[in-house]
């Protein structure tokens, strides 16, 4: 982030700091770092938010149960959980024996961190950072909408 962008961010949002300034404040042990939860889309029955802490087999079983009931499941992963979300979707596709399709969408999520001062002499600080996310739709296509290729007959 350039110093011009940092100054711009500070003007528009009050007490925002660049990432380097933010790390210096954390290292000084005068602040407590509080990471806000990321904004989530409205949760549907078919949404599964993947984390690295939850047992993979439990997440896989939950997704399979939703896929069996709803014919589609949306798997969401953020940051380090992106790889796990992809692996989960691929496992579902493999266990579907060709009847399951995958559609993916990637995005960048804005995350906000707060620094709360240890003593009353300091001002609270805020920092913005960005993280990768993935949204995977795992679904069973409608059999009537599947395009079938014409069979090729050989001559001879």
How many helix segments? 4
- Find the count of extended strands (DSSP E, 2+ residues): 5
Number of domains: 1
> Could you give a short account of the major beta sheet?
5 strands, mixed
Kindly name the structural category: alpha+beta
Q: From N to C, what is the helix and strand string? A: HHEEHEHEE
Shape summary: elongated
Radius of gyration, Cα only, in angstroms? Answer: 23 Å
Task: Write down the CATH class.
Answer: Alpha Beta
GO biological process, one term: rRNA processing
Family: Belongs to the histone-like Alba family.
GO cellular component, one term: nucleolar ribonuclease P complex
InterPro entries: Alba-like_dom_sf (IPR036882), Pop7/Rpp20 (IPR014612)
Set out the fold topology.
Elements: H1 3-13, H2 19-27, E1 31-35, E2 47-49, H3 56-70, E3 72-78, H4 81-95, E4 101-117, E5 125-139
Parallel strand pairs: 2-3
Antiparallel strand pairs: 1-4, 3-5, 4-5
Report a brief summary of the structure:
Helix 3 (56-70) crosses helix 4. The chain is of the alpha+beta class and 156 residues long.
